[in-house]
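Section 5.1 Outputs to date
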Amino acid sequence: MLLCYNLHIHSCLSPCGADDMTPADIVNMCALCGYQVVALTDHNSAANCPAAAEAAKEAGILFIPGLELTTAEEVHILCLFPALEAALAFSQTVYDSLPDLENRPSIFGHQLLTDAGGRVLGEVNKMLGNATGIGIYDVAKLVSGQGGVAIPAHIDRPSFSLLSNLGFYDPLMGFHTAEVSPYAPDDFVSPLPFITSSDAHDLSAIHDAERTIAVTEVSPQGVIDALCRL
């Protein structure tokens, strides 16, 4: 079965995400745009995933909990999980590995926690946009240990990407799939099979659904399995 997907979206928890990117509004926009499976991937945290999961259930959208990890080398990696509990457990590991630096909302933006209805519950004080202490060779193993899949993000971009920061891909890193941005040049060559998602930081960046993934089971695990065999 083919599912229209968007597996890279930031909520108002990401300091670079717009304040109106609540999980509820993200899910509703994705429903309007025709997506059938959606992941929330805030910077270094899955704390808004419970709200997104609840909103997605109401909207009839399959939800994949996740986050966008920043490695010690400042490479962005999408980390997607088959269950909310696994995502939150990994999120705590990531949070603990961040430097103990306080966010400055006036400079970097707010880091808002909301409920499934969009009501603001609080704000994360630790700066989520920093590099963690987790190295590029450790990510895939740590994520797979929670049943998930790790995907180097927007590898065509000139910053915060596997190829721009390191200049190479080593199979020993353990990745099966990469992400290429919607703006990659036509002649870009990926070292891995790839997906393309919006990397939306505001609602206007969530466009009509175009891309699909073939799954044998319509479930978070089915999507994880499909990503691993691209």
